[in-house]
Specification:
It is a single chain. This protein is α/β, with parallel strands linked by helices. It contains 8 helices and 10 strands. Helix content is 32%, strand content 20%. The strands form 2 sheets. It has an 8-stranded mixed β-sheet with strand order 3-4-6-5-7-8-9-10, sandwiched between helices. Helix 2 (102-115) packs across helix 3 and helix 4 (163-178) runs antiparallel to helix 5 (186-196). This is AB hydrolase-1 domain-containing protein. GO terms for molecular function: serine hydrolase activity. Pfam families: Abhydrolase_1 (PF00561).
Length: 266
């Protein structure tokens, strides 16, 4: 967290700090100066817009927020108008009781773009954000100009996701249930979303008109064969597997990841 203060002690008195004038600096995903809410499908979606140029929509992963892209923000923002969006019930966006599906969240994004009168946007989706982006681009080809997706799945089974991942998810869900966590708790709902969704048919990707960069790490939670299937089904696609990388490539190999995305969008 970035802070600024006029009164910071130094040397052996550094433990005695007057925090009375400390101000939290605005950060991506937590910037009241540019942040806005918009009513979409019964919830309030939080978004932030920065800069000039072609719009680039950032779609984050499960139980996260736009702030997950903090290492992409500066590099991508040099060329694109950055639109950060928190998915329903995550970040600063509000939830409701509607059953949570990726189709619903893709419809949220489509309605969001309609309300902002945006078409032909570039999209970067990571993990759940990639799932949402694929559905959006397949169902509404006019909305997406170019797309880059990282660690995306069409469905969760033994052919797409490593069994250890689902074993861990089941353990986490059981632990939540043992603690008496309510089934309408958003953390619980998001775990169940990972286990039970998505349900994207591979041939649905044939409808995608946007040139698409399909990325995954060599050691991703998504099996490489599944990532290759996604790239094969999207008519105009490029496949990149980051050697030595994993599902967290955007934060762990940031320079390479950002360059790969920018080179493709250019």
């Amino acid at each position: 967290m970035l802070v600024s203060s006029d009164k910071v002690a130094s040397g052996n008195k550094s433990l005695f700090i007057d925090n009375s004038n400390v101000k939290v600096a605005p950060t991506f995903g937590n910037n009241a100066e540019v942040g806005n809410y918009i009513d979409v499908n019964g919830v309030k979606l939080y978004y932030e817009v920065y800069g000039e140029g072609e719009p680039l929509l950032l779609l984050h992963g499960n139980n996260s927020s736009m702030a997950a892209f903090y290492k992409q923000f500066d590099d991508l923002g040099k060329k694109y108008k950055i639109i950060g969006l928190d998915s329903r019930g995550q970040g600063k966006s509000t939830p409701d009781n509607t059953p949570l599906t990726y189709e619903l969240m893709a419809d949220d994004v489509n309605t969001f773009l309609d309300k902002l009168e945006l078409k032909n946007v570039n999209v970067l989706g990571w993990s759940d954000g990639g799932n949402i982006a694929v559905i959006l681009a397949a169902q509404h080809p006019d909305k997406v100009k170019k797309m880059a997706i990282m660690g995306t799945v069409l469905y969760n089974d033994e052919t797409s996701v490593f069994s250890e991942v689902n074993d861990l998810l089941h353990q986490q869900v059981k632990a939540m249930e043992d603690r008496g966590v309510a089934k309408d708790n958003m953390d619980y709902r998001l775990k169940m979303l990972l286990l039970n969704e998505p349900h994207i048919k591979p041939d649905a990707l044939l409808n995608i008109k946007a040139p698409t960069l399909v990325m995954a790490g060599e050691h991703d939670v998504v099996k490489e064969a599944h990532t290759k299937l996604i790239a094969k089904k999207i008519p105009d696609s490029k496949l990149v597997i980051f050697k030595g990388g994993d599902h967290e490539a955007p934060t762990k190999i940031t320079e390479l990841f950002n360059k790969t995305v920018l080179d493709y969008f250019d």
